[in-house]
Amino acid sequence: MSHEVFISYQTESQAFVEQLCKLLESYDIKCWYGKRDVISNHASEIPKAIRGCKVFLLVVDENVATHPRGDILNEVYLASNLFKKGLLDMMSVNITNIEYEDDELLYHLGRLQKKFLIDKMLPDGAINLLAELLTRLGRGECPVSYGNVPGDVRYKNDYFDINDDHERERLNTQLHILKKFDSDVYDRILSGRKGLSVLDIGCNEGNLTMDRFGKRPEVRKIIGIDINADAIESAKSNFENEKASFYLLNGEDADFGYDLAEIREKHDIDKFDIIHISMLLLHMENPSKLLKRIKPLLSKGGKLFIRDIDDTLTFVHPDPMGGFNRMIRICAREELSGYRHSGKEIYSMLIENGFRNVALEKKGLDTSQMTLEEKDALFHTYFSFIYEDTKILYLRNPENKRVLDDYNWLENNYGALKQEYDRPETLFQLGFVTYTAEK
Ligand SMILES: C[S@@+](CC[C@H](N)C(=O)[O-])C[C@H]1O[C@@H](n2cnc3c(N)ncnc32)[C@H](O)[C@@H]1O
């Protein structure tokens, strides 16, 4: 069998690489690494080996992260050129928590590649990497139980485009479906109170903001903010009134607090009684920073409401051919769908940032009590979105082999999956989570 995975590493991590290869090769994933596979001439054999493999896997230890040697940079450079042409996949396995400090590495790797943070002591943590490699190499599902989806890292994703009607429609459908999911939580945080001021971060076009807070008599003032100028323009023209105002603001910006201070002064808001963040944290690289910044803005007795996603809680059953599982996996690695393990991490972020009374109010929206229309709508907010995104990615990168595989597979199987989904005995749960917290 020819080599499939080129492992790029510095000699300090030789022992780790040997263990990793042993694991991958026990699943018939044939690896290439210098110490074992160079026969006589590094300079000619390495470029040839990289070109012959399907995946380039960089092992990032402390040395690579801080002072990568020239030969590593050469390998990364060569691989990233092939990656740009869609001829090679790139991933890194980080065995250190240190972020890349080297500009050249940062430049070549950026956010295009997939990172796995795993322990030096294999095989713990390597299962996600293994699952991802098996998928990318077209070997189907990982035979080992590892949860629903491969690991992933957070990344910044300002994906929203006002001209994307499909996405706008999806957000609106989601808004209605979610009503049953956590409307009691809204009732609990609002009922019996009065004169409340609400801050909605990532309010988009304001539809959800106004649906949940616009007509509530308990609410005196609503401030919606979003990073997307078109979304804010739309929110202003559709909803701005005495009670509601919308502003273009970036929750990750260092000046966020100052800008918000001006807005609070203008609207006579001391602190916010409700801070609402729905489906935003999964798109942020460092949500903890935002949580830290907003804590001082919450009034005493005020409530933070967070809705997010965790695909560990997402499943379809029965799934005899594993097709739904593959869809969930595609969603996890798609660059447009956010970080799909975000939900469970929010709990510790809230605790670490000093929030009290943190409650995981809801976990997983399922179809068991849904009408046929609702079940169908839930399919469209998730599966059709994966299908559409894969098409978009395919049109953008027609030569990328992985995207092409996903696209072809979906073209051939999407209709059958929908039929399977529509069967009365098929249960779908989508991993929405809702938290509340106080300061
Ligand atoms: C998935 S939409 C969610 C919209 C709405 N909250 C909902 O649940 O339907 C995420 C929104 O967050 C916005 N967003 C992303 N990054 C942001 C940031 N750093 N600051 C403010 N808004 C941001 C996007 O523009 C988008 O409108």
TrEMBL record:
Keywords: Methyltransferase, Transferase. Pfam families: Methyltransf_23, TIR_2. One of its GO terms (biological process) is methylation. Residues 1-133 form the TIR domain. Gene3D superfamilies: Toll/interleukin-1 receptor homology (TIR) domain, Vaccinia Virus protein VP39. SUPFAM superfamilies: S-adenosyl-L-methionine-dependent methyltransferases, Toll/Interleukin receptor TIR domain. GO terms for molecular function: methyltransferase activity. PANTHER family: TRANS-ACONITATE 2-METHYLTRANSFERASE-RELATED (PTHR43861). This is Methyltransferase domain-containing protein. It comes from Heminiphilus faecis.
